[in-house]
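Researcher: If convenient, please comment on what follows.
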Amino acid sequence: MQFKESETIEFKKSTSELEEAVVSIASILNKHGKGTLYFGIKDDGTVIGQQVGKETLRDVSRKIAERIEPKIFPRIKTTKIYGKTCIKVDFKGAHAPYFAYGRVYMRVADANRQLSARELEQMILHKNKDSLRWDTEPCAQANLSDISVHKIKTFTIASSLSYDSVRNVLAKLKLLSGSKPRNAAVLLFGKKPEDMFFNARLRCAVFSGTNTAYITDMKDYSGDAFYLIEKAQEYILEKINIGMRIEGLRRIDVPEIDREAFREAIINAFCHRDYREPDSVNIAVFKDHVEIRSPGLLYGGLTIQQIRSKIVSERRNELIADMFHRIHFVERWGRGIKLILDKEPTAEFMEIGTHFITVFKRKAQTTIPPTAEKSREKGKEKSKEKILRLMAENSAITTQEIAATIGLSLAGVEKVIRVLKQEKRLRRIGPDKGGYWEVIKK
């Protein structure tokens, strides 16, 4: 019989190595939950035997009981191996992490490695992940009356579900805990989620340089996660440069950062963020790059290298991820990072403090001569006047009709309309469908 150490079997030549044995037992428990340790066998598997006195087994038992927390109750006995007396310790436990001398160790091959503070935190979170999930907790201050019927109906249409009542739909989606909506239900479908969760917000800013020294624009939004995702996308599109290409007779807008890439990063930020953290998702637009900042580091022990090189995903918020999957916001296979890198190969990912950050580099812009700048400003003013004139003539005109009439792209028309609203020269009365434009005369 060949004796060899492994991740679940440990050899000690004698009880003189009892302290090291305690560390080995704890590290094996933390990795596998059970194992066996022998006294009287050398590291190379040579059986040399162990002298056993009246108190030997009791001393081994007492040392293990005193130095390992939480306590375990191993089976300790003498055994004959090749005619020599050895001590065999069989142990098991289901309450990891186990501490030996106040530290936590993990078995790696036949060695014991002390865990870092972050690794210990991840181990504890993994053990309690189901009970600690924020999105599955019932929202104590919310009732069914706080859920928007309109939002639920819109979701059922998008996800091909049938609607009968708010209660039944939430129950089908596992978004109810008894009679209480879960946190995910309020975050996604609440009438005013920000009243329940002060971090159900989006903060956006533009900085004039490559750092945060000078801010030129700042917007804060509050609402459900679907609304905030759309606002984040709109803000980036509004603040970055938009080019164009011609396909046949059509003019296609081309943002300097791929639209699919930054939309995926935004969705990931809201899907995987740590909602126990007080901060909001932040969008920062700099002169040379755009950052999407999400509270909460990578989950489940994942590293940046792993998410860049492998199609792998660990979900902090399973319920939220499931809702996003139902309307095709995310895939179950965790291919979001690959999509981002396919579209924007220079994208970077980093962890700073308690935030996960996705960074997109902006394309270099050539300097615009002053005469060209003046000409461009005149063009903007002409576009404003044309749009206002069309709206004054037909208050029900659509943005598509405006784009077709003045030869501007749809995104260009929408951008001009946003500026006119900010300048208080234009107001929208009623919903997008059925409403009308009001031109404000100064």
